[in-house]
DNA sequence: ATAGGGTTAG
């Protein structure tokens, strides 16, 4: 079939054994998923060294700037023993699914010879295979199954595109997307999302615009939430406004609080504080959730409006909404920028004691920044830490990173003393 | 059967 050949050609980099290693950068042992008792995917365990040129046809493959969850590590997410287990079940599943198909309720229909009904279960099984391989990072295997499928549904294509994007092959995913004859909104969203997450904002927005303007396809709320970070990255208030208008016109804004919250953030990042806070004010109170408040607090934080952020926090709390770690980060950042040291410390206390939230490096970063402006850095932080069993080592590392070797040294000493003090206590118990 | 992050320091 011509179509199949086209797909094959476009996937040839994936099917090229030389490119295999690229997908398993952390793999320290090689074995194939179906090698145990499958012959239809013949794998070699002795592959030539990676040849990046076979795949890097465009800079889009560059993983730099990608968010981490975008590039799960194959060897950590799927451990070798699990893989072997998986391999066995994959191979046996294949058989059992086929058996299942022959005993399924549609057996009579299949016997009647209706090709559509016969093909559907096969397509689904193979789609499942493509998905399984894609999720595990076995893109070559996924491509092979995909290529050899006699019949592919839109879901098959989407599943394969998902796999390619998940493992950083956005450019390749786009090529596959281009070959589709019937793209669903999921297909578009996937590729746009791939570009957004790899910081290819122009490509993301170009594709989004093509989808809406040329192909006349309506985005879903997921598509919009996907395109917002790209627009924020472009920093264009004009695009921000036009997308906002679109969302408003289609009713997204009214029916999905997530869209409104994301728009607040988008306006702020495009430098339009007034629009951001107006958008927030226009949300009916009963629809405001903690993310809405957090978003508006971060708008205040960006502009040194500490008082307003503190005030927002209090209103939010009174409304019975529970702040999370991000909420506290916003308010701490606002306190830091607004010079509200006492308030900032109070919020940090509240976070740890009242809400039992564990501060991370960003919270400490805010604290350091805040206290750094006021002087007295180390002792103040240690006061907090002593009360709440915080992480001295983390603190010490932060200070070392900031060039405060002397302070870091002192913290280590205190840590040692603390351990020395604690040990006898433990032995009594 | 397929997307599925509202908000994350400096």
Compact overview of the structure:
This is Pentatricopeptide repeat protein. By secondary structure, the chain is mostly helical.
User: Sheet with the most strands?
Assistant: none
Computed Rg: 27 Å
Topology as a string of helices (H) and strands (E): HHHHHHHHHHHHHHHHHHHHHHH
Strand proportion, as a percent range, falls in under 5%
Which whole number gives the mean pLDDT?
Answer: 72
Anisotropy-based shape = elongated
Number of strands: 0
Distance between the termini: 76 Å
Count of individual helical segments: 23
User: Structural class from helices and strands?
Assistant: mainly alpha
- Secondary structure: helix percent: 55-70%
Uncertain residue segments: 1-6, 16-113, 414-429
Features:
DNA-binding; 429 residues; disordered N terminus; disordered C terminus; mainly alpha; single chain
Q: Secondary structure elements and their pairing?
A:
Elements: H1 2-15, H2 74-77, H3 80-103, H4 107-112, H5 115-136, H6 139-148, H7 154-166, H8 170-179, H9 185-197, H10 201-214, H11 221-234, H12 237-249, H13 252-255, H14 257-269, H15 273-281, H16 290-302, H17 306-318, H18 325-338, H19 341-354, H20 361-374, H21 377-388, H22 392-401, H23 405-428
The structure holds one DNA strand of 10 nucleotides.
């Amino acid at each position: 079939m011509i179509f199949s050949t086209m797909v094959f050609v476009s996937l040839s980099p994936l099917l090229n054994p030389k490119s295999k290693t690229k997908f398993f950068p952390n793999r320290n042992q090689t074995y194939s998923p179906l090698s145990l008792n499958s012959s239809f995917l013949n794998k070699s365990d002795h592959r030539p060294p990676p040849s990046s040129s076979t795949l890097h046809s465009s800079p889009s493959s560059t993983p730099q700037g990608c968010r981490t969850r975008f590039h799960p590590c194959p060897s950590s997410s799927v451990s070798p023993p699990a893989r072997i287990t998986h391999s066995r079940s994959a191979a046996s599943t294949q058989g059992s699914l086929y058996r299942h198909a022959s005993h399924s309720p549609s057996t009579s229909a299949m016997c009647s010879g209706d090709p559509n009904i016969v093909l559907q279960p096969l397509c689904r099984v193979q789609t499942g295979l493509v998905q399984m391989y894609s999720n595990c990072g076995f893109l070559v295997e996924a491509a092979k199954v995909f290529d050899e499928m006699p019949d592919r549904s839109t879901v098959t294509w989407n599943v394969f595109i998902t796999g390619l994007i998940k493992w950083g092959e956005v450019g390749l995913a786009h090529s596959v997307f281009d070959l589709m004859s019937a793209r669903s909104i999921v297909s578009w969203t996937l590729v746009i999302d791939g570009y957004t997450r790899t910081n290819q904002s122009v490509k993301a927005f170009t594709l989004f615009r093509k989808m809406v303007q040329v192909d006349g396809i309506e985005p879903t709320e997921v598509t919009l939430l996907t395109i917002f970070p790209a627009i924020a990255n472009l920093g264009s208030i004009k695009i921000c406004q036009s997308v906002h208008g679109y969302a408003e016109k289609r009713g997204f804004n009214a029916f999905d609080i997530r869209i409104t919250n994301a728009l607040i953030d988008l306006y702020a990042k495009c430098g339009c504080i007034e629009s951001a806070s107006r958008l927030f004010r226009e949300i009916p109170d009963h629809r405001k959730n903690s993310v809405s408040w957090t978003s508006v607090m971060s708008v205040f934080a960006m502009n040194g409006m500490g008082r307003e952020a503190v005030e927002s926090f209090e209103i939010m709390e009174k409304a019975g909404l529970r702040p999370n770690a991000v909420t506290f980060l916003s308010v701490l950042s606002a306190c830091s920028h607004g010079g509200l040291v006492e308030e900032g410390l109070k919020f940090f206390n509240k976070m740890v004691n009242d809400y039992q939230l564990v501060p991370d490096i960003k919270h400490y970063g805010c604290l350091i920044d805040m206290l750094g402006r006021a002087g007295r850095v180390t002792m103040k932080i240690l006061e907090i830490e002593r009360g709440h069993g915080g992480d001295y080592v983390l603190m010490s590392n932060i200070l070392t990173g900031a060039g405060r070797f002397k302070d870091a040294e002192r913290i280590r000493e205190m840590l040692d003393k603390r351990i020395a003090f604690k040990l006898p206590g433990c032995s009594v118990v």
